Amino acid sequence: MSELALEDLRFHGRGPASLALADGECVALTGPSGAGKTLLLRAVADLDPHEGSARLDGAAADSLPAPEWRRRVGMLPAESAWWADVVGEHFPEPVDEERLVALGLPPEATRWQIARLSTGERQRLAILRLLANRPSALLLDEPTASLDAESVERVERLLERYRRETGAPALWVSHDPAQASRVASRRFLMKEGGVLVELRS
């Protein structure tokens, strides 16, 4: 079980942003392009300069080595990097075949060349790579943006299952109001300047 707390985060001239996520909770973040949603995730992951604090189970980001914090607070960027030629080389250990199948991918996908992957395949494999690191919290930047309806449903189910089984909270950026309502218990609008406003149903 994990809790993620953001306190007065200021980043790239935006904020302050404060938000607390309970264990296993999914909070959706929406807002216009350029409002700073991705920049907020990067600040939480300690990838960009920021002020204020991010805490996971009471431990502040600056109390841990940066690689350890980023492993615990796993961020899925809108476009993930691939540095080796073969899919399996990007995973720390053999890929969970059950998760591959859950996302509509065959077991042999780990032997595929990165160059042959479609955008949707890369996106689903990036999600599997993130989960393989066993993060205690998830920062998800449009994780289903390039997927068809069936794949979107598969990803939503897999991430919900991961949260339920591990207690990992998730901050999920989405431009789809219907998706935000499906996956999240709370929804926040980020206005220009990085101000968060909770949306009431």
Keyword list:
alpha/beta, Rossmann fold, 6-stranded mixed beta sheet, 4-stranded antiparallel beta sheet, 30% helix
Précis, in short:
The protein has 201 residues and is an alpha/beta fold. It is built from six helices and ten strands, in the order βββαββαβααβαβαββ.
Question: Can you offer a commentary on this structure?
Answer:
The chain has 201 residues and is an alpha/beta fold. It has one domain: 3-Layer(aba) Sandwich (Rossmann fold), CATH 3.40.50.300. 30% of the residues lie in helices and 25% in strands. The chain has six helices and ten strands, in the order E-E-E-H-E-E-H-E-H-H-E-H-E-H-E-E. A six-stranded mixed β-sheet has the order 6-7-8-3-9-10, sandwiched between helices. Strands 2-1-4-5 form a four-stranded antiparallel β-sheet. The radius of gyration is 16 Å and the shape is globular.
Please write out the topology.
Blueprint: E1 4-11, E2 14-21, E3 26-30, H1 37-44, E4 51-56, E5 59-60, H2 66-72, E6 73-76, H3 97-102, H4 119-132, E7 137-141, H5 149-166, E8 170-173, H6 177-183, E9 186-190, E10 196-199
Parallel strand pairs: 3-8, 3-9, 6-7, 7-8
Antiparallel strand pairs: 1-2, 1-4, 4-5, 9-10
Element order: H for helix, E for strand: EEEHEEHEHHEHEHEE
What do we call the CATH topology? Rossmann fold
> How many domain regions?
1
Poorly predicted tracts of residues: none
Structural class: alpha/beta
Query: CATH homologous superfamily?
Result: P-loop containing nucleotide triphosphate hydrolases
How big is the Rg?
16 Å
The CATH top-level class label: Alpha Beta
Distance between the amino and carboxyl termini: 27 Å
Number of strands: 10
CATH architecture: 3-Layer(aba) Sandwich
Coarse shape: globular
Total helical segments: 6
Q: For the report, how would you describe the main beta sheet? A: 6 strands, mixed
Q: Helical content, roughly? A: 25-40%
Strand content: 25-35%
| pLDDT averaged residue by residue | 94
Strand order of the largest sheet: 6-7-8-3-9-10
